């Protein structure tokens, strides 16, 4: 059984006790995400190239690079957009449930940030004349990516009130960790400076959010100032 706290701690560098995600676990192991994306990027480069055509000589692949950007840049934005949409749906669930003020504030901040980022990513892809989404199955053929599914969101929405916040944070930690993995791949393989800068911001912000959520899940007792 995977433990979400241990997974997130491995990403953020923060040790923490994990919480079993028995009801909301992912179908694909999270640390397969980076390997899947790396393999995907290699295949896209090999098949498309920064200036070449499709393998069959037909239409331009959705993830093909261009002047000043490469397939990794395109793939990162095309994968992040649906990820952001899922994230916004997830954090909006906090509005209709009883959560602590800290969690409510965090959820609202994540929604604001990810909506703004999504608009920027859409503009970048349009400037490159690339579709906002890859053609159906284009990335899935290389293994796809772990995601927060509609089924998981529906299950979370039905969770009893006394367990909602903990399950909400567990699912959100996993979701934001996916973003960290994608961002780090883009930082290492992307070409476009704007997209790589965005990836670094995503890495920093999501890692900070994960640390905050781990502290909420596993608060440490205050130190005794009178202790010798």
Automatic annotation (TrEMBL):
Keywords tagged on the record: Membrane, Transmembrane, Transmembrane helix
Domain of life, source organism: Bacteria
Indicate what this protein is called per its UniProt record. DUF305 domain-containing protein
> Keyword Acyltransferase on this protein?
no
Region annotation Disordered: where it falls in the sequence: 1-23
Lineage of producing organism: Bacteria, Bacillati, Actinomycetota, Actinomycetes, Streptosporangiales
Q: DUF305 domain location, by residue?
A: 73-217
Pfam name, any one = DUF305
Residues crossing the lipid bilayer are 31-52
């Amino acid at each position: 059984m995977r433990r979400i706290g241990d997974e997130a701690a491995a990403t953020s560098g923060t040790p923490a006790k994990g919480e079993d995600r028995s009801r909301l676990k992912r179908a694909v192991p999270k640390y397969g995400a980076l390997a899947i994306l790396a393999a995907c990027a290699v295949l896209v480069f090999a098949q498309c190239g920064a200036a070449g055509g499709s393998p069959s000589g037909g239409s331009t692949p959705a993830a093909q690079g261009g002047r000043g950007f490469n397939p990794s840049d395109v793939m990162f934005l095309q994968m992040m957009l649906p990820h952001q949409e899922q994230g916004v749906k997830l954090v909006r669930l906090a509005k209709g449930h009883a959560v602590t003020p800290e969690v409510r504030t965090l959820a609202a901040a994540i929604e604001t940030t990810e909506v703004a980022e999504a608009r920027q990513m859409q503009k970048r892809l349009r400037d490159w004349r690339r579709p906002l989404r890859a053609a159906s199955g284009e990335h899935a053929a290389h293994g796809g990516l772990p995601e927060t599914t509609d089924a998981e969101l529906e299950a979370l929405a039905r969770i009893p009130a006394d367990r909602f916040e903990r399950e909400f944070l567990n699912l959100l930690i996993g979701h934001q960790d996916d973003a960290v993995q994608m961002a780090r791949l883009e930082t290492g393989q992307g070409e476009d400076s704007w997209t790589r800068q965005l990836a670094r911001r995503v890495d920093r912000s999501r890692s900070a959010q994960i640390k905050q959520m781990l502290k909420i899940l596993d608060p440490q007792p205050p130190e005794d100032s009178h202790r010798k």
